[in-house]
Input
Amino acid sequence: MSDNATPLHLGQTSSLPASPEEAVLDYVPNPRPQALYMVRFAAPEFTSLCPVTGQPDFAHLVIDYAPGETIVESKSLKLFLGSFRNHCGFHEDVTVGIGERLFAEMTPRWLRIGGYWYPRGGIPIDVFWQSGTPPEGLFLPDQGVASYRGRG
Output
């Protein structure tokens, strides 16, 4: 997370970080901290690398969260997610790691991530993680990504 109160990326020219560890996520004050609402980010063209073969893996990520005092700045999130394109990791590690990092740094009321991975070795792997029970009264739409069915 950025050390200063001013976002590092918002309104600035930013380069894609070389790795998720080097990526800096910016958070800004929640404009409606008293309201219970959900924010959704969808990354339908997410990529990382297979840790065994080094070949690219593709996923459709859906990140839902109920903000607390801060919200994640979207440009920094895009750069963070983009930094995985040269990162080797199993689907489970990548998906859960993204969710855990966002939850730890942003401290939302609640967060979930769905990683809908395209087949590797003929088997699609979908990975889901959430921080706990959603707050009572939070509207939770379906993530809207169908399980992989192949062609046709």
Q: What stands out?
A: The mean pLDDT is 92. The helical segments are 74-82, 91-106.
